Structure formats: C-alpha cells, structure tokens
Inverse folding.
C-alpha cells in the first residue's frame, strides 16, 4: 500500500479539522473527528481499505479510551494518532502481509499509534503556542472596540496554526513515512526479535487504556461486577458488541428502576404514617 500526495493532503485536512473551533467546537472536532474510532473510518475511506482502517482505529481507541486533557495537559495527541498513526499502521500491516483482523495486526497498530501520539504532543503545543499570538490580537481588538476583527481571530487566523502544525506535518509524515514503513519490511523481518518485541508491547497497550478507564469509573469492589459481565458475554457466548450493548442497556434500565424505588420508598412510608394518624 502506498499513500499519494492527494491522499496525504486529505488526511492533513482532517487532522486540521479535528481540533478546529469552527467545526462546532471540541464536540464535533476533537471529541468526534479526532477520535481513532472515527479517524479509522475516515482513513479507510481515503486510502481505499475501509476494513483495515476501522480495525486499526478500534485497536488504537482502546488504548486512549479514557484519555482526558485536564487544564490543557496532553499526554498524547489523538489527532496525530488518528490521521498519522492509523495510515502508517495500515501501510505497515499491508507491507508485513498481515491480516488486519488478527492480534498481530492490532499489536502493530497500537505500537504505531503510541509512537505517533507522543510525537503529536509537540504539534499540539506548537498549535497552542501560536494561537496565543492570535489571542493577543483579539484582546487588542476588543480594547479598541473593533469587534469585527474578533471574528477574524476566531475563524480565520487559527487556520494558520493548523496549517503549520497539523496539515503540513500530517502531509509529510503520511507521504514520506509510508515509504519508510515499507522499507522496514526488509530491514526488520517478521520472525526477528525487533518485530516480535513490537507485537508483544503493542498487545499489552490496551491494558493501559482499560486500567485508566477502570480508575475513573470503579469506586467500590462491586463496580467490577457489571464491568466483567461484558467480557463474560463476549468470551462465553461469543456475542458481538451490539448484542452486549443491548444486554447492558437492559441491566442499566433495571438498575435505574431500583434506584428510583430507593428514593421513593421513604416518601411512601411517611405518607402511610400520616394517614394512620
């Protein structure tokens, strides 16, 4: 698989849109287009292999499923993971002759995403630093009463930041990086220690994402019970994600009804006592 300049340009465009305020804020940009699960779909459509793109996106999404950016602190840039890591992972999987639906391919994809995500933090902070210059122009415009220039600062000038730190890096890394990944096929054979190590580390990375998610949602020991129900359904009954989600919805509804009864029970008891009096 090779990536043309046109395809690399489209990937750069989506990398820019993934965090643009003009795309409806972070809800549509960063938290939708920027997520690996959605990025895999977009990359699959652009590169002509929808299945491989989605599978790579799913593998990387598990690692960063609980990624948050408190106070602007970013440990990994999902924008770079989605639109640089996924395309390069797709190229690597094809060049190694792997099936995208195998554990080895998922391990390779997660390793590639982690590498690119760390590099992407530099691009993220570069964008944020340059945006400070536009913000300074905006404050000066407000102080002078020139409110029309605020629209320029909000919707036009940030494109310069994203062109320099999103579009151009994605364009270059996807185009030239694809050739480098393909060249690794001859330098690092599949049965070599380097590739086996890469696959092993990549297979362990989803545990990090799941552990971070558990740390956020588990407060008591009993909270583990509904969490492991999904794994039991998938492993024992071989249910897919849709079936597991429907069953989880049923349990969620029952849990909601029980909680409502706990709230209503004291008020019902008080009413009965008042009637006796």
């Amino acid at each position: 698989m090779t990536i043309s300049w046109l395809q690399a340009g489209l990937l750069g465009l989506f990398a820019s849109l993934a965090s643009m305020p003009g795309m409806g804020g972070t809800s549509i940009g960063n938290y939708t287009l920027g997520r690996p699960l959605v990025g895999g779909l977009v990359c699959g459509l652009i590169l002509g292999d929808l299945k491989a793109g989605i599978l790579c996106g799913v593998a990387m999404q598990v690692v960063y499923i609980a990624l948050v950016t408190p106070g602007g602190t970013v440990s990994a840039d999902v924008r770079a993971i989605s639109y640089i890591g996924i395309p390069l992972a797709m190229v690597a999987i094809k060049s190694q002759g792997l099936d995208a639906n195998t554990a080895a391919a998922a391990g390779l994809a997660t390793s590639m995403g982690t590498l690119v995500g760390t590099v992407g933090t530099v691009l993220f902070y570069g964008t944020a630093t340059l945006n400070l210059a536009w913000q300074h122009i905006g404050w000066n415009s407000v102080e002078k009463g020139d409110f029309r220039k605020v629209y320029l600062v909000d919707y036009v000038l940030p494109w310069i930041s994203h062109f320099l730190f999103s579009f151009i890096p994605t364009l270059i890394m996807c185009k030239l990086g694809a050739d480098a990944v393909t060249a690794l096929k001859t330098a690092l054979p599949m049965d070599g220690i380097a590739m086996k190590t890469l696959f092993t580390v990549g297979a362990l990375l989803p545990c990090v994402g799941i552990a971070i998610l558990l740390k956020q949602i588990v407060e008591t020991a009993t909270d583990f019970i509904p969490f492991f129900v999904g794994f039991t359904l998938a492993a024992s009954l071989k249910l897919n994600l849709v079936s597991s989600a429907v069953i989880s919805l049923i349990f969620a509804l029952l849990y909601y009804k029980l909680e409502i009864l706990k709230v209503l029970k004291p008020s019902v008891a008080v009413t009965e006592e008042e009637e006796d009096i």
In short: The two ends are 82 Å apart (CA to CA). The CA atoms of residues 72 and 184 lie 35 Å apart.
